[in-house]
Amino acid sequence: MSLTRFSVRQGKRVRDNALHLGLLSRRRQGYGAANSAFTLLEILLALALTALVLVSLNVFVFSMGELWGRNSDVRLFDRHVRAVTRFLENELRTAALPPSVAAGAAPIVPQEIKPASGTTDNLITFELPAGNRLLVWPDRPLPEVVCSLQARDREGLVLLWHSRLETKFSDDPPRETVITPFVTALAYDYYDPDFKTWKTETTIRKDNTGQLQTPQRLRLKFAYGKMKRESVIALPAPTEGLPNF
Length: 245
Description:
The structure is a single chain. By secondary structure, the chain is of the alpha+beta class. The protein has three domains: 1-35; 38-68; 73-234, no CATH class. Helix content is 37%, strand content 27%. The chain has three helices and nine strands. The strands form two sheets. Strands 1-2-3-4-5 form a five-stranded antiparallel sheet, with helices on one face. A four-stranded antiparallel sheet has the order 7-6-8-9, covered by helices on one side. The model has no long low-confidence stretch (mean pLDDT 83).
């Protein structure tokens, strides 16, 4: 009888201990969950730091945009000058290669041209076998396009052009296309081999016999507002190639 009472008491103690341990474990878990949550102060501090980072980023982006846009006109003008210079260099190089020019002939020469205005002028002239992308034809495009360059006041650099295959090539004035309105002057550089110096002329030079002399370089002067630029284009020399049959 005493053994039975002892067993009952022991079982009761085990149950009480298990219950106590379970309650203690739940309290600890609840205390840990409470400690793992963010407090209101921590949330407000995180929002303040995020807002500060966003404001700093916006200030940086807008300041960089302001700095970039401050000199946008200068950059665009310089890019335009380089683009026009490269375009003319490519066209003149094309005119100097066969079959644009016959073997032994000068590819780029000064000629007397009469534009639509009626005032005859001596202009640098060259021929393009297939024209170029700036030419707008009234009908289908024609090959063997004779081109001339002329700088006009308040108009810019003008390309005068017409095809040798047109029926009124010798009678009608050439068509006109403005390459750029920002060219204010076109000058010609001549090299003196005796003195080894360059001399710039505003008009095409003539020799002692009255023949027009081809310059070695073209000098373009650009202007936009207060900005001024100058570029130099070397005229390509005639190259040796197969004769035209």
